[in-house]
Amino acid sequence: MTTAQPPGSDKDDCSSPTQLSVEEALQRILNPLQTVTETETLPIDQALGRIIATPVLAPIAVPGNDNSAMDGYALSSDDFRLANTSGLPLSGRSMAGHPYGLQLPMGSCVRIMTGAVVPDGADTVVMQEQVELNNDRVVFPSNLKTGNNIRLAGEDLQLGQTVLASGHLLKPADIGLLASLGLTEVTLFRKIRTAFFSTGDELIAGGTPLQPGQIYDSNRHTLTALLQLAFIEPIDLGLIGDQPGLIRTAFQQASSAQHSGADVIITSGGVSVGDADYVKEVLDEQGEIDFWRIAIKPGRPLAFGKIDQAWFFGLPGNPVSSYVTFDLFTRPALYKLAGAAPVKPLQIKAKLTRAIVKRPGRTEYQRGYYVQASDGSLTVASTGNQSSGVLSSISLANCYIVLSADSAGAVEDDLVTIEPFTDR
Ligand code: AMP
Ligand code: MG
């Protein structure tokens, strides 16, 4: 901890004359980043959550043929009048997987099932509940409409069209879409090698009783969980004590061939101005790193820059600050490096049920819990103690309550902006 701090003060609360806004910081981080160029081709069943590198063009139309949307009878609109008066004789059947295969003879119809190919010459399907069978003839109703109940060839995907663009992150439906085209493999951007470690002499791993002054290392495990993204290859470098030599070695290890040279290095702790904050000291000698104070609460100190070929994120040690900083800055950066098209987090309005005290100056990401009433309206309250060390404030939350830098707090019934945790 910094010696300049009064006892009990929140380290992230110290003031600084030059601060970046959240947007400025994000732009400065994202601007220099380039998506990886290397790609790999994988079976579609191993591609969920990965990012398309080469646009996928449809090698066939889907569906490949006009086919029936109903169980019923297929006929030609030329025969509508006859169909409604004396009825049409049956010429055969078209079943799913077993097409009729011939030109439909004039003045007749075929029995057809859902998904079965509509025979050449037929242009309309009538559902079976609407016809009457009169001896060997099928009598149709009078209100027939040409084209009814037919799914047209190519109405899902047309031959040659771009089905999935480069930068698309594959969801379960996309895997099915690729399969519907008969594709078995897809070309993806390679994974982003992401090394991380936590720093602090006070930290120990779980499973051992705490000695006086010790706490358990939570940040590295939060990071392990946050980095469980299909396009990330995580490299856990462990828990490193507050010794410049050890920290230096960890950075060297991250850049080493053993890890094929990490693309990204993330650390937690040691980036502010405390006596034992050696990460800052080592980085000052090693890389091109900016140490920023961002007008954000929680999570003000953030180090960003380059160590060898790796982008570096020095997250603050306070567990909530570390989490929020990752969410706001590191996550979008990882997406960009991995080639994913940018997505802005969904922001919606909810009515506050409990006042929030805030001073103007910093954008606040309070942890909140929103509830949707049966009429669809949303209410939200903060999850209680919002100190940057109180990790339960995130665990209890299902959203951020975002209060802009100029906001001077909010009272009950105010509409506030929330960001639901959709992917967390
Ligand atoms: P630092 O930024 O290293 O000065 O740490 C700020 C605060 O966060 C201190 O109270 C640390 O004990 C705490 N902290 C740092 N790293 C971790 C971690 N990995 N897990 C839990 N708490 C941490
Ligand atoms: Mg520390």
What does this structure look like?
This protein is of the alpha/beta class and 424 residues long. It has 4 domains: 22-38 and 191-338, MoaB/Mog-like domain (Molybdenum Cofactor Biosythetic Enzyme, Chain A), CATH 3.40.980.10; 40-60 and 159-188, Molybdopterin biosynthesis moea protein, domain 2, CATH 3.90.105.10; 67-151, Molybdopterin biosynthesis moeA protein, domain 3; 348-420, MoeA, C-terminal, domain IV (Beta-clip, Beta Barrel), CATH 2.40.340. The protein is 18% helix and 29% strand. It has helices at residues 22-30, 80-84, 172-180, 219-226, 244-255, 278-286, 319-338, 392-395; strands spanning 39-43, 56-57, 67-68, 72-75, 88-94, 109-112, 124-127, 132-134, 137-139, 150-151, 162-164, 185-189, 192-199, 203-204, 215-216, 232-240, 264-268, 288-293, 296-297, 301-307, 310-315, 348-352, 363-372, 378-382, 399-403, 415-420. The strands form 7 sheets. It has a 6-stranded mixed β-sheet with strand order 7-4-6-5-9-8. A 6-stranded mixed β-sheet has the order 16-13-17-21-20-18, sandwiched between helices. The protein has a 5-stranded mixed barrel with strand order 22-24-23-25-26. A hairpin with a 5-residue loop joins β23 (363-372) and β24 (378-382). α1 runs parallel beside α7. The structure holds adenosine monophosphate and magnesium ion (MG). The site of adenosine monophosphate has 20 residues, from α4.
